[in-house]
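Field: COMPLEX_INPUT
Field: COMPONENT_COUNT = two
Field: RESIDUE_TOTAL = 288
Field: MODE = joint
Values follow.
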Amino acid sequence: MIEAINAGEIDRFYELVQRYQQALFNFGLRICGQAADAEDMVQDTFLNVFKYLKTFRFETQFKNWLYRIAMSACIKRRRRSRFAPERELSLDEFLPSDEQIAVDTPAWAREPLDRVLDEELARRIEDAILALPEAYRPVLVLRDLEGFSTEETAQILGLTPGNVKVRLHRARLFVREQLKEYFSHDPHRSA
Amino acid sequence: MTPTDPPEHDPAHCRQMFAHLSEYLDRELDEAACRQIERHLEHCDACRACCATLARTVALCREMPAHAVPEAMSARLREAIEKLRSGDRTVSGARPD
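Field: COMPLEX_OUTPUT
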């Protein structure tokens, strides 16, 4: 499709838009937190793709290239948005504490996924992701929501794979803490 | 870590295993490291519960429902692309005030 667009079939660019706009919009929502910023980011991204598609080198997967552009657009938009305070997440703040030793695996980790994930929980997860410091949020979103591999995430964000792994683990532990807190207020689900 | 290690909660060892739980869940560790973690999980209730809730956290993130694209966004995007096609290089992603 990209070769066809570059060869002059410009109308086919809208097929690219159709294919990726929802994923990009959701990516923007999860990184920027505001629908208006996500919309702007999607527009910035596609306009840049339109302008620079001829420079796209096929050794990089198109989707990775697209998300790299989207991430740059998010960084530009970020200055106008309210973001979670920047801080380092330490592994030690998430270590299981002694009082947890006797606790069995809670119900929310045992029940079928579709019984656990409802609208309220989805909102809670979105809030937890937005509360992640900026250095960690894109890593978790790309790996666990967008489905990119460690290598691809590293390439998109300009990090080493080792750095992606460290940030991802801490980001997951952070979100897990928020979920534990959420379920601790619901005796039917936390038991 | 060997199979003869004491079953009690050992903070130093837990921390070492705990640091690699995501890599374990993502199958990014070699076989020896996986076995080491599995042996630890067999007798450490805290790390086992932690691993289960971490795995569930990842699964929940992966199953998150997608938001629909606002109709106005698609229309605005199409308009901006058409402007660009017609040679207007000043068009950007900024929303009109």
